[in-house]
Design brief:
There is one protein chain. With 248 residues, the protein is α/β, with parallel strands linked by helices. The chain has helices at residues 10-26, 34-41, 65-71, 100-104, 110-125, 151-161, 167-182, 187-195, 199-215, 217-225, 235-244; strands at residues 4-7, 31-33, 51-58, 75-76, 81-86, 89-99, 127-133, 142-148. Strand 4 (75-76) and strand 5 (81-86) form a beta hairpin.
Length: 248
């Protein structure tokens, strides 16, 4: 049975409509990651997003997906993204891509290595979710089924991405980790998926978890509580999250 999620709002309608448009332009299914994936996996969505983040593993004979997308007439946003038109408006699409070569020749740096392994994991294990936007947005609603990253890979990707994010986005990524680890739907999946994960990925994720939730716990708390959705988080919550993550 394919799980389903109901979302609301004009921005969510546009992001959801961008999924089939992107797949049509690329000529293949996509893997949804980022904020939309988090909302799809949690028992209850706690924030919205206006961007569509995707992951891809590219083989040696494939063109980069961003190049394929730009060749269809999409407007470039920057080195990682483009704007895709939908009936509800333009949507920024970011494509985070790793290659077979990178997976087979892993970087020595733990952060770079976790980037490669976590995105490859997300693509390999993504599963379908039916996303519906309606209930006041459109009388007839809008529904699409797409591949969405699993909770474990989402946590791994966000543990890595915090280090490379703008300051304004750090708190959101860290709070997403907290929500995914503690949520009734995703928490058990996160633990089970890390237990079965590649040992190198698990080790690198543990190093990042120790950094954010042990060594820099107080800094992490400040970043999380600086955003409205994170104001109920306290030190005890972060200590509990640290106990549930795969620390080295």
């Amino acid at each position: 049975m394919i799980p389903s999620v109901s979302l609301m709002g004009s921005s969510m309608l546009a992001v959801t409509q961008a999924i089939p448009e992107l797949e049509k332009r690329l000529g293949r299914p996509i893997t949804v990651i980022g904020g939309l994936a988090v909302m799809c996996r949690l028992a209850g969505a706690y924030r919205v997003t206006s961007d569509l983040d995707t992951a891809n593993r590219r083989s040696a004979n494939e063109r980069p997906q961003l190049d394929v997308l730009l060749a269809t007439g999409a407007a470039r946003a920057d080195a990682a993204g483009a704007f895709v038109p939908t009936p509800a408006g333009l949507v920024r699409v970011d494509i985070l891509e790793v290659s077979d070569y990178e997976v087979e020749h892993l970087p020595e740096d733990p952060n770079d290595r976790l980037h490669v392994l976590s995105h490859a994991w997300a693509v390999a294990t993504a599963s379908p979710v039916a996303i519906e936007v309606g209930h006041g947005v459109r009388s007839d609603g809008y529904r699409v089924t797409t591949r969405v990253a699993e909770p474990g890979p989402l946590v791994a990707m966000k543990l890595q991405s915090v280090m490379n994010r703008p300051v304004a986005k750090e708190g959101t990524d860290l709070l997403d980790i907290v929500r995914l680890v503690l949520d009734a739907n995703t928490g058990p999946a996160v633990r089970a998926q890390f237990d079965a994960a590649d040992p190198v990925l698990r080790q690198d994720a543990g190093l990042h978890a120790e950094k954010w939730f042990v060594e820099q716990r107080d800094k992490t708390l400040r970043k999380i509580t600086a955003i409205p959705e994170g104001r109920g988080i306290d030190v005890d919550t972060l200590d509990f999250v640290a106990q549930l993550l795969p620390l080295p």
